[in-house]
Structure formats: C-alpha cells, structure tokens
Amino acid sequence: MKKRALIIAPHPDDETLSLGGYISKMIDMNFEVYVLTVAGHLPPVYTQDDYDLTVKEANEAYEILGIKKSKFLEIPSTMVGEEPIHILNGKICSVVKEFKPHYVFCPFPDRHIDHRLVFESAMVATRPVNEGKDIEMVAAYETLSETHWNAPYIEPNFTHNMVVDVGEYIDKKIEALRCYKSQITEDQGPRSIKAVRALAEFRGTQSGFDYGEALYVIRMIG
Fold it and tell me: Does this model's pTM top 0.85?
C-alpha cells in the first residue's frame, strides 16, 4: 500500500527548511506527500503581492522536491491566533480526514506564535480516534530561526529523538530552498543556505550520517 505523509507548515518555506530532504526521500520511496500551509504573508502585516510571491516560490520549491499535492489556508501570518480555535482545528482536521495520512509532521512549539498554535491544532487533528487511529507516526520538526530561540528551561527545548539520513537529498533541499528568494539568504542569518547546510551536517554527525534532519517523535505505532 502506498504510504501517505502530511506536512503541516505554518508558513511557506517551513516545509523545505525543516524537512526538504526527508520530503524528497519519501517521494523517492513512493510516498504520497501533501503539504498543508496554514498561514502566509497576507495583509494587514504584509501586502497581497508579498503573499503571491511566496506562494509562487513555494510552488517552484514543490516542483523540485516532487510535491504534487498542497493546500494554502490563507490565514495572515502572526494572526493565526485570531482564527477561532474550533475553526482552525476544523480546517486542519478536514485535511486529515480527506487525506488519511500514515505520517504527520508538524512544527515544534517554538518561539513563533504561529508555530505554537499550529502545533496545538495538529495535536487535536491527529488524536488516535476515527481517522487518527490509522496514523502510524506523528512527529515535530525543527525550524531554523525559530526553534532554537526558545528560552532554555522556561519554554520547551527541541531535543530530538530521531534523525533522518538525507545525505543523498541535501543538494535537492538546498536547490528548493533557493526558490524562496524573498525569505532565504545565501550566507547571512539563521535562515540562510549556510545555516541550513551547517545544521544538517551537525544533525548528521550526531547519528553517523553526512547530513541529517531531526525530529521529535510524539507518537508512533508499529
């Protein structure tokens, strides 16, 4: 049976920053991958042109990674909290109900308020009842520039318990990331190609790989 993996991303680029290598690897393993993007660079904080650009960049990145199925919920970035919680939960639950994933990947509840709220809704949507009983793994991913800025011991720290070998896919991940020209820089800052490669190399050395992507497994059945 063909496995299905759902990546719940708070914003365009989070899916590639966090799991670009693993996404490409799963697709090569004949997984069907669905990316659900909850929020985006929309008014009033950003302009419609800003949003349209990031969606265009996302679709270019998806093409490189091999993603065929995606959806954008179009909630303004940093304003996810203004969406009534039952409506936000319902939107994410409806995708889980429709897609029936075996694997679900969600953001770690880090410094970004959107990430924390999307994590909470993902936990509701993946409860082991109804369609959720068929989910084999739920895991949280780390996102450069957000996950590592939590206040130690005051907020939860990302301490992974799984590393995926993405040595064969790091170049494709970097190629896809470069599509996000409005978000990703080459050498400067935490959301740079340099930082992404460095983190992947570090995670790889922790598990004997050349490059890795880290996850915290929340629930897994086997």
Answer: yes
